[in-house]
Write a structure and sequence with these properties.
Chain B: Keywords: Membrane, Transmembrane, Transmembrane helix. Chain B: This is Stage V sporulation protein AC. Chain B: InterPro entries: Spore_V_AC, SpoVA. The complex is a heterotrimer. Chain B is mostly helical. Chain B has one domain (20-151). In chain B, 72% of the residues lie in helices and 0% in strands. The longest helix of chain B has 29 residues, at 23-51. Chain C is globular and about 50 Å long. Classes of the chains: A mainly alpha, B mainly alpha, C alpha/beta.
Chain lengths: 116, 152, 336
């Protein structure tokens, strides 16, 4: 069941992105940015956490979870250190994702050649 | 409708000449491919839960890193952009799309050198995601923190 | 000699003495692939980066064009060339290599006919005995300059066009040869408010219509006086729009209109609405069309090269796309 919900919820978030592309004629960059902001917003009231509990990777793999993780990490620190904590905690939960994206991107760029 | 030779109405009058987008088909493709990527993510997650000491709260880290590795390699082999044209948002929205935007920009600017080419352009496309993520997290964070403080 | 408002008639005989064309792998597999002088199986054309590959395409096209008539670069008076890259770097590099007095040209995808018209005018007026022209475009150099990195997976809509990888060169001279250049019409910049760079066919159709309309007025001809009215890169979206605009003006070009962007690829190739780019009109005109004219299968052709004169910055600033079209008339002097 977990696998099915991961597929369905993940797929539905992509459908929202597709509708932004097709219906609202947004550029890919605008679609991604919008989804990140929506993800951050849904962190409020723990909504996104409920979605993760329900759909697992279906909620953590789409880019919406990036916005959620940024805010989630920031709020965790903020509970201890107040407003300064927001800045301290922003990247705590997304560190693995950003670091691996930079590292793998860099290594792949060194090794491969663009194919066109 | 008016004449097609009216420059002011041109944009409206030529709509009939544009190929129709089949919303259902494009959404179905996005759903299946995007869902499939999340399904792979779920499998990777289950793998790490079973064979490593990551728990339910931390398993997202290796899962996302693994997907990013796969996506970076597919970009290097020159196939991710082909998937992207087929799947639309299906390959754009998952974190693999984020990795693709970083790797493709780095790869494309390789010819201008490692520092000025690869490193400078790495965040050419993905930079917007991080900027908006951080700014929106700060805005929502400040609002939530202020409300929490006010409510005591 | 000036003809009407914006056309020229070359009263002294001016000829398209030679042509040279090169192209990449997708163009090779296209319907006119066998007509192209030299094709490459790899998009890199054996070079280390895309820009170098584009230079190779133009260098080879120029070499083939000169070799066809046993000429050396020093036998040519002037070189007029352009491409789509910033500061027309490809053309400038080739001009540096060949050391022919050089005029860099930019008319985006209309550069092919811009250079041909001016070359013909130079020869007609006696300011040159022979002028070499060349244009090039490369799918990957254009992608990375105007759009996204080539490996980026962001999808493009169906109205988008696909930049042709290739180059076309031509030698214009007084020496009699099978193809004569008889008239040219210089286009005006037309902008009917299209802002979508993924819909250049719609943006350019009014520019093509303007140039064709004025050409017919200036020369006093009818569309039926031509065997073919060939537009540069209007694609499957812009072509029917052009025919509709002309029909609405009371000019029926339905029977004679063709588009290079639709001739260079077959419909089952993954090229969205069709080909575009400076090389699109040049490769088709200087290979397939030139061969048909040489054999006398086509008698008189109006080539209308269309171009979008925007850059990525003004598009992001929400400006609309200024477009232009230049036309040149090519006539077969007999054939068999």
């Amino acid at each position: 069941m977990e696998f099915l919900w991961a597929f369905v919820i993940g797929g539905l978030i992509c459908v929202i992105g597709q509708l932004m592309l097709d219906l609202f004629k947004l550029t890919p960059a605008h679609v991604i940015v919008s989804l990140v902001v929506i993800g951050a917003f849904l962190d409020s009231f723990g909504l996104y956490d409920k979605l993760i509990k329900f759909a697992g990777a279906g909620a953590t793999v789409p880019i919406t979870s990036f916005g959620h993780s940024l805010l989630h990490g920031a709020m965790a620190e903020a509970n201890q250190h107040g407003y300064i904590g927001l800045a301290m905690g922003t990247f705590t939960l997304t560190s693995a994702g950003i670091t691996s994206a930079i590292l793998f991107g860099f290594i792949v760029a060194l090794i491969f050649k663009p194919k066109g | 409708m008016g004449s097609i030779n009216d420059p002011k109405q041109y944009k409206k009058n030529i709509k009939a000449f544009h190929p129709k987008t089949n919303y259902f088909v494009s959404c179905l493709k996005a759903f299946i491919v995007g869902g499939f990527i999340c399904l792979i993510g779920e499998c990777i997650e289950k793998f790490y839960l079973a064979f490593t000491d990551f728990n339910q709260n931390t398993v997202g880290n290796p899962t996302v890193a693994t997907l990013i590795l796969i996506s970076s390699l597919l970009t290097g082999f020159g196939v991710y952009d082909k998937f992207g044209q087929f799947a639309g948002a299906g390959t754009l929205v998952p974190v693999t799309g984020f990795a693709n935007s970083i790797t493709s920009a780095a790869l494309e600017h390789k010819s201008e050198g490692v520092v000025l080419g690869i490193a400078t352009n790495l965040f050419k496309l993905a930079g917007a995601v991080i900027v908006f993520g951080v700014v929106s997290a700060a805005v929502f964070g400040i609002i939530r923190l202020t409300i929490n403080n006010l409510l005591g | 000699m000036k003809l009407g408002k914006q056309s020229w008639r070359f009263s002294n005989a001016v000829y398209l003495a030679s042509t040279g064309t090169t192209a990449g792998p997708l163009e090779k597999q296209g319907p006119i692939g066998t007509e192209i002088d030299k094709t490459y199986d790899k998009l890199h054309c054996g070079e280390k980066n895309w820009e170098a590959a584009e230079r190779t395409l133009m260098r080879e096209a120029v070499d083939i064009c000169l070799k066809n008539v046993n000429k050396k670069p020093e036998d040519v008076d002037f070189f007029m060339a352009g491409d789509l890259l910033n500061q027309v770097v490809t053309a400038n590099s080739i001009a540096k290599e060949h050391q022919i007095p050089h005029l860099g040209m930019f008319g985006a995808c209309s550069t092919s006919m811009q250079t041909l018209a001016l070359a013909a005018q130079f020869v007609d007026s006696g300011f040159a005995d022979s002028v070499l022209t060349a244009v090039s475009s490369h799918n990957a150099t254009a992608e990375r300059q105007f759009r996204y990195p080539t490996e980026y997976g962001g999808p493009r809509p169906k109205t988008a066009t696909f930049t042709v990888t290739g180059a076309g060169a031509s030698l214009v001279s007084k020496k009699e040869s099978p193809i004569r250049i008889t008239e040219a019409t210089v286009g005006r910049v037309i902008d009917w408010g299209i802002k979508d760079v993924n819909d250049m066919g719609s943006a350019m159709a009014p520019a093509a219509a303007d140039t064709i309309t004025h050409h017919l007025e200036d020369t006093g001809r009818e569309p039926s006086d031509y065997d073919m009215i060939l537009t540069g890169d209007l694609s499957s979206v812009g072509s029917p729009i052009l025919r509709e605009i002309m029909w609405d003006r009371g000019i029926d070009i339905n029977g004679v209109h063709q588009d290079c962007g639709l001739m260079i690829y077959s419909p089952n190739q993954p090229v969205f609405a069709g080909g575009s780019g400076a090389a699109c009109s040049a490769v088709v005109t200087y290979s397939y069309v030139a061969n048909q004219l040489k054999r006398g299968k086509l008698k008189r052709v109006l080539v209308v090269a269309t171009g979008c004169l925007h850059n990525p910055i003004i598009i992001q600033q929400k400006e609309s796309i200024p477009c232009i079209a230049h036309a040149v008339v090519l006539e077969s002097i007999g054939g068999e």
